[in-house]
C-alpha cells in the first residue's frame, strides 16, 4: 500500500541562506519604517527576525553592507510591482500613467517602500556615501520613464514637442516629492492626489 503522506523536501543551504537574508532585510525595513534608521541595530534586527545578532553580522558584514542590501531589495520590490503591471504591453502614454498609478497605489500601504525613502532622506541629509546607489536607482527609473515617453511620441499618443528627458525627470520628481511629503505627514490621504496627478498628467502629455 502506497502512503499518501508527502515527504517534505529538504532545503539546501543556499535556500536557508536566502530565506534568512530575506527575513533579516524585511525586519530591518520594518524597524526603519516604524522607528527610523537608528533603530535598525544588528541586535534589534536579529530579535525582530528571530535570529542572532551574529547572523546579521555574518550575512551583511557592516551597517553599510546591510543598508546597501536593503536598498537593492527595495528596488527589486518596486521593479517587480512594475513588471506585474505589464507596462511594456501598454502604449507609451498609458505606460507612464501606469507607472505613476502603481507607485502611488503602493506607496501609502507598503511599509518597505516607506523604509526606502527614510533611508534616502537620511543619506541626503548626512551627505552619505549611500547617495550613490540611490542616484543610480533613480537614474534607472528616469531612463525607463524617458523610454516610455519616446515610445509614446513615436506612437503619436504623446505630444511630439515635449522634451522626453525633462518629462521623465518631472514625473520622477513628483513621485519623490510625494514620497517625502508622506514621511512628513504619514496621515496624508494619497488617493485624491493619485487621481489628480493622473488626470493632470494625461492632459499635459497626451497628443
Tertiary shape: elongated
Number of strands: 0
CATH class group of the largest domain = Mainly Alpha
Order of helices and strands: HHHHHHHHH
Radius of gyration: 20 Å
Unreliable residue runs? none
Assess the beta-strand content as a share of residues. Answer: under 5%
Q: Averaging pLDDT over every residue, what do you get?
A: 88
CATH architecture of the largest domain: Orthogonal Bundle
Describe the protein.
With 207 residues, this protein is an all-alpha fold. It has 2 domains: 48 residues; 138 residues, Tetracycline Repressor, domain 2 (Orthogonal Bundle). It is 74% helix and 0% strand. It has 9 helices and no strands. Helix 1 packs across helix 2 and helix 5 packs antiparallel against helix 7. The termini are far apart. The model has no long low-confidence stretch (mean pLDDT 88).
Amino acid at each position: 500500500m502506497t502512503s499518501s503522506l508527502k515527504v517534505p523536501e529538504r532545503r539546501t543551504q543556499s535556500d536557508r541562506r536566502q530565506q534568512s537574508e530575506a527575513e533579516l532585510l524585511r525586519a530591518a525595513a520594518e524597524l526603519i519604517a516604524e522607528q527610523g534608521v537608528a533603530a535598525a541595530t544588528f541586535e534589534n534586527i536579529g530579535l525582530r527576525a528571530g535570529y542572532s545578532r551574529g547572523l546579521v553580522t555574518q550575512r551583511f558584514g557592516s551597517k553599510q553592507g546591510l543598508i546597501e542590501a536593503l536598498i537593492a531589495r527595495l528596488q527589486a520590490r518596486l521593479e517587480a510591482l512594475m513588471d506585474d503591471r505589464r507596462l511594456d504591453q501598454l502604449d507609451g502614454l498609458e505606460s507612464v500613467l501606469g507607472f505613476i498609478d502603481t507607485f502611488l497605489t503602493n506607496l501609502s500601504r507598503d511599509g518597505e517602500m516607506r523604509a526606502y525613502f527614510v533611508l534616502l532622506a537620511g543619506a541626503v541629509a548626512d551627505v552619505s556615501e549611500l547617495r550613490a546607489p540611490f542616484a543610480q536607482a533613480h537614474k534607472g527609473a528616469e531612463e525607463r520613464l524617458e523610454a516610455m515617453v519616446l515610445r509614446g511620441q513615436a506612437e503619436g499618443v504623446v505630444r511630439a514637442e515635449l522634451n522626453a528627458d525633462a518629462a521623465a525627470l518631472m514625473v520622477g520628481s513628483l513621485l519623490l516629492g510625494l514620497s517625502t511629503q508622506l514621511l512628513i505627514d504619514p496621515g496624508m490621504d494619497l488617493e485624491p492626489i493619485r487621481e489628480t496627478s493622473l488626470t493632470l498628467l494625461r492632459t499635459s502629455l497626451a497628443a
